[in-house]
Design brief:
The protein is globular. The longest helix has 14 residues. It has 9 helices and 17 strands. 45% of the residues are buried. 30% of the residues lie in helices and 23% in strands.
């Protein structure tokens, strides 16, 4: 039996982004945070003592146009809603509030991640950026599934090995999120953890509470461990392994002539036309921090589709 407070979590799920920001400011004050900065695009609170050397981040918006008025609890502790449950990223919001009851980490809640990491980009252009450059590392709670560690363009192998050893989670591929912006701008390594939600960006999205709680408790214990400062090391894309095989940069010469993987502030939507497993022509729109990362996301979602089945790739 998990210990998620369903009444409290349901309240978080039902807030609009603006309501949630006000709610979170009050919550941070009640938890003893002495500095709380409510700015255009984000809500930032530096941590207290050694705990403050780790930053926790999540985003306050969801893709759904309606709040989840009807929340259903299914067997095996699964939450869903016909309006779209909003686990991406209200799971992360709830988890952070629970973690900082015990460890006063630095906290950053961002607005409008779903339309291009708007809040995190504004944070990197603010005076507060200097205050996170000496962090030991950053943790984002905004990832589908149950067991993933996602590092995006950060290729600090020591940081990755330390996390795997201390969590038991495994490395996976991701396209973009707020932490992509934060790592590149601050020079601090970061990771995104699975939060137990699935089928995000659709009304069929659901949350597995047991998996959400597992990550919450894992991160709660992780941030208590002593560690060195882990720096952001930009990944080299030549023969880079994304979990479904290695692709040489020559791939982009044919399929992504507009790619620019260093532009992490750009959010690309790419339409990929391909021959599906049934032999018929299909298309799908995927997103990424860059043109090439959206292309890679397609192969992460469709690992059995061979490269030669791709007919065209067009930014939309």
């Amino acid at each position: 039996m998990n210990t998620i407070d369903l009444k409290r979590f349901s309240e978080i799920l039902r807030h609009t982004q603006a309501e949630l920001k006000t709610f979170l400011e009050r919550e941070l004050a009640s938890l003893g945070y002495e500095e709380i900065y409510n700015e255009n695009g984000f809500l930032y609170a530096p941590g207290i003592g050694v705990d403050g050397e780790v930053l926790l981040t999540a985003h306050m918006d969801t893709v759904h146009q309606e709040i989840p008025a009807d929340i259903y609890i299914e067997e095996e502790n699964i939450l869903s809603s016909p309006q779209g449950i909003g686990g991406d990223d209200r799971c992360g919001i709830y988890m952070i509030l629970e973690i900082i009851k015990e460890t006063k980490c630095s906290v950053l809640f961002c607005e409008d991640e779903e339309i291009g990491c708007v809040g995190s980009h504004k944070f990197t252009k603010s005076m507060y950026l200097e205050r996170i450059k000496n962090l030991r590392y950053m943790v984002e709670l905004d990832r589908r599934g149950s067991n993933d560690l996602v590092f995006y363009d950060c290729d600090n192998e020591q940081f990755e090995d330390w996390l795997i050893e201390n969590t038991g989670y495994t490395t996976n591929f991701g396209t973009c999120s707020d932490i992509s912006e934060l790592m590149c701008a601050s020079g601090v390594a970061g990771v995104n953890f699975s939060c137990g939600y699935y089928k995000e960006h659709t009304k069929d999205e659901y949350i597995v509470l047991d998996e959400m709680e597992r990550t919450m408790n894992t991160v709660k214990e992780l941030v208590k461990l002593p560690s060195e400062k882990f720096s952001y090391v930009e990944a080299c894309y030549d023969d880079y392994d994304y979990g479904f095989g290695k692709y040489n940069c020559s791939v982009w010469d044919e399929f992504a002539p507009l790619h620019n993987h260093k532009n992490t502030s750009l959010l690309c939507y790419v339409e990929i036309n391909f021959v599906g497993e049934n032999g018929e022509e299909e298309f799908e729109i995927v997103r990424g921090a860059t043109y090439e990362e959206a292309f890679l996301e397609f192969f992460y979602l469709h690992p059995t589709i061979p490269m030669e089945n791709v007919l065209s790739v067009e930014e939309v």
